[in-house]
Amino acid sequence: MKPFEYISTKSINEATQVLSEYKQDARVLAGGTDVLIELRRPHAKIPKAILDISYIESLNGISESDGLIILKPLSTHTQILKSDLVRKYAQLLGIAASQIGAPQIRNRGTVGGNVMNAATCADTVPPLIALDAEITLRSNGGSRTMKLVDFFIKPYKTKAESDDVLIEITFPKLPSNAQSAFIKLGRRNALSISRLSVAAILMQDKKGLISEARIVPGAALPTWMRVKEAEEMLIGEKPSLKLFTAAGQKVSEVMISYTGRRWSTEYKEPVIGVLVRRALEGCVKD
Ligand SMILES: Cc1cc2nc3c(=O)[nH]c(=O)nc-3n(C[C@H](O)[C@H](O)[C@H](O)COP(=O)(O)OP(=O)(O)OC[C@H]3O[C@@H](n4cnc5c(N)ncnc54)[C@H](O)[C@@H]3O)c2cc1C
After folding, report:
1. Final residue of a domain: which of 172, 206, 225?
2. Separation CA 243–CA 213 (nearest Å)
3. Residue 7 pLDDT more than 80?
4. 117 C-alpha to ligand 1 centroid (Å)
5. Is the CB of 33 under 6 A from ligand 1?
6. What percent of the chain has pLDDT over 70?
7. Is 50 close to ligand 1, i.e. is its CB under 6 Å away?
8. Residue 286: pLDDT above 70?
9. Residue 52, pLDDT above cutoff 90
10. Do 270 and 195 belong together in one domain?
């Protein structure tokens, strides 16, 4: 690996200053589980400087305020899966975090790194979009907040500028009538990258009818989004195998309408439908 300058900082202001100076020539490092692997690739573009933000304490932690969960970007997947707040108000995110890599990766890898890397298989992204998360980016020029669903352009490409630091992720707490699920399918059971995944949230009214539905597939569409066509089929209905199967088929149809038919469609077409059905079933279990 070519040499680079290593800069470590304990303050957000200093971090944004360094980034405004180096621009494309600097790379932020959080847990390093994506960056370091990338830098070791044979023809990797090595930046002039690596900016280590992992010691900035104000960028770490999970808290609640005014009905919102505030997830700081340096929160590791282990912190997320162990968080009582996540367990109570965002169960699907905890499930996703628990299925990332292996314990070593979960101990180092951060939610901020997972979002900013924007890999198609990023496991925290579908749950965060289902939770209607917003992110706040900070640069020397100030802060801006946007819906996470609007942040991604395509795999590995986001609307972040080279001098942006992700400083916060927020989302509303799920109400007590909400149930959620996250399912991922990889090539093996452990240490597995998602080939497909589904995040789902269902809310039922007092009569047991579905009052709100959110379905976000992962690694299925050109970028992440809720599949409204399938969600709408569920509203006002009683949960049933037939209904959830139909919703799964709809997600499959929508996926193909975006991606067209390609070599992987034969596999993905039935499988995404089954994953959606299973995720929805997971949302109505006691
Ligand atoms: C063996 C292995 C298994 C894995 N398994 C999974 C898996 O199952 N599921 C999954 O989703 N991922 C998996 N990953 C990928 C990786 O662990 C995650 O994406 C992790 O969350 C990345 O976080 P990090 O803190 O290590 O990011 P880093 O590597 O430090 O950074 C990733 C990217 O985000 C940028 N960045 C990080 N934080 C910020 C910030 N606050 N502001 C601005 N930019 C920032 C960096 O510049 C870089 O571009 C795996 C990786 C490995 C090596």
Report:
1. 172
2. 12
3. yes
4. 6
5. yes
6. 100
7. no
8. no
9. yes
10. yes
Residues 62 and 153 in one domain: yes
Going from the Cα of 239 to the center of ligand 1, the distance in angstroms, rounded, reads 36
* Ligand 1 pocket check for 76: Cβ under 6 Å: no
Closest CA to 133 of 115, 120, 121, 118: 115
What CATH number corresponds to the domain at position 27?
3.30.43.10
Q: Which residue type does 49 have?
A: A
Residues 126, 110: Cα–Cα separation, whole Å: 16
Q: Could you tell me the distance, in angstroms and rounded to a whole number, from the CA of residue 230 to the centre of ligand 1?
A: 30
Residue whose tokens read 């621009």 = 23
Q: How far is the CA of 210 from the centre of ligand 1 (A)?
A: 35
Ligand 1 atom with the smallest distance to the CA of 28 is 47
Place of tokens 């640069």: 139
Task: Examine the domain organization and report whether 136 and 185 are in the same domain.
Answer: no
**Average pLDDT in the chain:** 95
185-227 pLDDT per residue, tens? 988 777 778 889 999 999 999 999 999 999 999 999 999 999 9
Report CA torsion sign: 57, 61, 63, 69: positive
Residue nearest to atom 46 of ligand 1 (CA): 28
Domain that includes residue 89, residue range: 57-172
114 close to ligand 1 (CB < 6 Angstrom):
yes
257 and 184 in a common domain: yes
Joined together, the tokens standing for residue 124 give: 């925290």
Ligand 1: which residue has its CA nearest to atom 36?
113
Q: What is the mean pLDDT of residues 14-43?
A: 94
Indicate the residue among 137, 172, 207 that finishes a domain. Answer: 172
